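Write out the 3D structure for:
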Amino acid sequence: MSPRLLLTPGDPAGIGPEVTLAALRDDPRRDEVTVVGAWAPLAREAARFGLTLHAVDRVDGTAPDGSVAVYTPAGDEPVEVLALREAVAACLDGRGAALVTGPIHKARLAAQGFGWAGHTDFLAHLCGSTDPVMAFVGGQLRVALVTVHLPLRAVADAVSQAKVLHTVQAAHRALVDQLGIATPRLLVCGLNPHAGDDGLLGREEIDVIQPAVAQAKALGILAEGPISAEAAFRRAMAGDGDMVIAMYHDQGLAPLKAVDFGRSVNWTLGLPIIRTSVDHGTADDLAGKGVADPASMKAALAWARELVAQAR
């Protein structure tokens, strides 16, 4: 049996079940996918989209032609957490070709004892990986983040030379190994406005980012920076750079989502498995209304398949 594409819808109270089945309704290759999640919300959405669900008894189970295979894990943890545990295990042992994830609700999970900041940290824990890198691709931009879910006042202390270098190296490896770009060009943002203005607006560029870029260059990586964020994104939009390395969450995602929302895909670098995800949250205010846009889920499925094809 060929490895399956495993799709976890995420929080059953959000729009994950809806965008999952909306994406699969239009997917001529849905027979390659097993959905791993709670049955009831998926069944409600299946009726909306005219799909037939088929319960399977294992994470890589298959369904009759035209129907959607659904595996619902059992256990004491929230179903979206159980789904991730089983899907990751299947990808690690070869039963799963890739993992595509819908949105989770971090606050709801934290209230139930979930001890990780989000998907990426938990997946790294399950894979036994350290320091995964959150990246986004699709549309006109590619972005990798040095820091992720931190209060803004904590970002400057978290941006270290080692962390910048690690992010640059992870981005370089992914673009070379998974996308086949021989010499990717990486545009490394500064932390401060105007990339610090030669120290006038902060020394992080001089003391931290510039030395990390120099180390990367010494390793043969085509990295440039620190560059002011607005200049880096403008150049990337013009095709003068293969990926932007942003220092913090909103520095990278505000421009990306302004340009590519609905087309961009969350791509986790530094894991031993292929993982892609939607670029949006649970959107509780839209859940159950049949109006959520499945474009990002479709893009996440397409990107996972492209990475699987490249790996072969």
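DSSP finds eleven helices and twelve strands in the chain.
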